[in-house]
Write the C-alpha cells for this entry.
Amino acid sequence: MHIKKTKHTFADGSKKTQITLVESYRPGKGMNPRTRTIQDYGYLEDQTDPEAFLDTLQKMVADHRKANEKISLTIDVDKPINDPTNRDLRFGPYIVKQIYDQLRIPEFIQLNRKSKARYDLNEILCFLTCMKLVFPDSKRSTYMDIQHIFGTEKTFDLQDVYHALGEICDLRVALQKHLQIEVNKLFTADTSFMYLDITNTYFEKDFATEGRLPQKGVSKDHKTEPIVQQGLLLDSNGIPLFHECFPGNTSNSLMLQPMVEKVKSHKMAKGKTIVVADKGLNSVPNIDYLCNQGDGYLFSQVLRGKKGVRYHQRLFDESLYTVNKDGTYKWQLFEEEFSGRDKDGKKTTRKRKVLIYWDAADAKVARKKREEKIKRAEKSLNNKAYTLDHSKQKYIKAEVADTKTGEILHETVDLLSIDQEKIDEDAKFDGYFCLITSELDYDEKKMRAVYHTLWMIENTFRTEKTDLEMRPVYVSTDDHIRAHFMIGHLATLITRLIQFSIGKLEISPERIQRVLQSCILDVPSSGVVHIHEISGKLEFESIRNDKGVLAYSTQETGEDEVYQDFKLVGKAINLSLEKAYIRKEEFVRRIQKVAIPLQKSRHA
C-alpha cells in the first residue's frame, strides 16, 4: 500500500495534486501486477493543513506495512509451564470494554462520583461488567481470574471490589439515565411503549433477613430460599431501560407505579407512554395511576374465576367471533365501561377496548399440560404421596365424610379422588386469551402485535438468570444486592446492543457469550500476539418451523458454528481479526476500533 500523487492542470492554468491510497496486486498466478484504489482523498490543496494530512497518511501506510511484515519467533524450549509469558489470556472482556467505553461510563463516573476512596471505581465496574457478560461468576471467583484477562491490570484488591459495590448502588439510578441518553445516540429515542415485568431471584441461604430485600415470598421456581424481586422496563426497541429491586414478599401489582414514577421523574420517557404488562400488574390502582397522568396501558386479563366472570357470557357466545378460514383462530373486539378514580380520588367511568381470542395451537398446548398434571395427580394417589402435601395437586379433590351416612363432617376421614369437575371446568378455557387497552383506536392486530413484544422481557430474564448467572445471589447487604443487579443490567444492555448491531441475523446471547469465551491468546514473543483458534461447535443448517421460529435440521454445514458466529459479531461491531499471529500494537489498535454502529430505531 502506498500514496499516489497525481498532478492535474485546469483550464484556468491552476494546478492541484490528487491524493489516492492504492495497493498493488496480481490478478492471477504469473500475471503482471496491477494497482487498485483503496481511497480517494481529493486534492491536497483543499486540505486545511496539507502537511499534517500527509504526515498522518504516511504514518497509516507505515503502520500497515509494519503490521504485514513477516513475524519470526524464537522458541525457548526450557520455559517452565507456569512462566507468565506462557500464560493464556482471554481477550473477550477486552472487546466488551470498548462498548463499555463507547457508552461514556468512565466520563459519567468521573463527573458523578462523590467518594474519595483511592481505588479506581470505573476500573472495578468495567471489570465486573465485562466479566459478568463473558465469564459470569461470584465476585470472589471473578476477581481470581483478573491476571488472565488481557488489558486488565491488578490495581485493586477484593476488598476494594466490595467497597465499590456500595458506590455502584448509590449511582445506579443516575447511571441508568445516562445509559438511556447514550443508547439514544445509537437508536432514535422511542418510549411510546414500555414493557414491564417482574421476576424472582433466589439466594443461597436458608433464612431471610428481617427488613431487608431478601424475603420469603412466592417464587415461580418453587424455591424455599429467600428471594428478591426485580422489576424490568424495556423501551419500544426492546432495549433495557430501567430496573429496580423489591423485597421478595412484595405483590407484583405494587411495583408498577414506583418504577414508572422514577422513569418519568428522571425524564427517561417523554410524552405519552403505553405500559405493556401481564395480568400480574393489572390492577385498578395501576390503571387509575396511568390514566390520570395521561399515559395508557395494554394488559392481559384473567378469564377464569371471579375476576373473569364478567366476560364469560361473551366468551362462550360463538356468534360474536370472527373466524379464520381453517377455523384455527377466532376473535372478538368490543368496548366496555368500567369504574375507577380520578386524580382527586372521586369515582369516574372510563372506556377501554377488550380483545378475546382463541388459538387452536395454544389450546393444544394447554390440553397437553393438563394431561401431565392429571398423570401426576393419579400417580400421587396411587403412591399415597399426597399425604406429604396434596395442596399442590391441582386435580386432587379432598372431602370429609361420615363413612356410614355419607354426611359431610369435619372430624372423620379424608376421601381423596381425581377432581373431574375441576378438570372439565379448566378445559373450557383452553386456548382463550384476553387483552385490555386504554387505546380505543387499536384494532385486533395492533393489540396482539404490541402485546407479543412482551416476550422479550421473558427472554431478557432468561439471559440474566442463565447466561449471565444472576442467580443465585451470594452478596448479602441491600446495597451490594442492588449493585449486583446494576452490573447485570449493564451486561444485559451491552449484549442486546451487540444483538441489534448484527441486524436480522438471529444469534442468541448464549452464542455471543460463547464467541467471547473462545477469544484466547498468548504472547509467545515480545510484541507478538498469538490468537488461538476460535471454534468449538459443529454447525448444522438452520430452518424455520411452521410458526416461523428458527430451528435446526440434522444436516451439517461443514463449518464451525463458533467461528461463523465470530465473523458475524466481528462484522457487526467493526472487529477484524484473521491471522493467528499479529503484532501487539496492531492487535490493540484493531480491538480499540470496536463500536456499536449508529442505527435507525426499530422494534426487535
User: Anything to note?
Assistant: The longest strand covers residues 329-341. The CA atoms of residues 228 and 248 lie 4 Å apart.
